[in-house]
Design a protein that fits this description.
3-stranded antiparallel beta sheet; about 100 residues; alpha+beta; single chain
Length: about 100
């Protein structure tokens, strides 16, 4: 996945943790390269948790989840409450992954 700001492709770090950062922007998981982290106020672009306001969000299977407080939002924009759409989310994720 490329950097959402400049399009640079991520490379594997030599040793240690990756200098790239993750976030969610407009309900999409994004990566931010080290150069853009220094050149832009990239944190201001990130979506915020509907529960605690944190930017520590992750996307998986069509759901945005906060790593700070575990708040979740389904793909349609509503707070997740076990609405039975997991099967549809999995199907959509598999379709995106395997269809070219």
């Amino acid at each position: 996945m490329p950097c959402y700001r400049c399009g640079t492709r991520q490379t594997d770090p030599g040793k240690g943790p990756s200098p790239w950062k993750r976030g969610v922007v407009r309900d999409e998981q994004v990566l931010v390269c080290p150069d853009c982290q220094q050149a832009h106020d990239w944190v201001a672009d990130l979506d915020r948790c509907g529960g605690c306001g944190s930017t520590m969000l992750v996307r998986a299977l069509g759901e945005t989840r906060c790593r700070q407080c575990a708040w979740a939002k389904a793909a349609g924009g509503t707070a997740a409450a076990g609405d039975g759409s997991l099967a549809a989310d999995v199907e959509e994720a598999l379709r995106r992954r395997f269809e070219r």
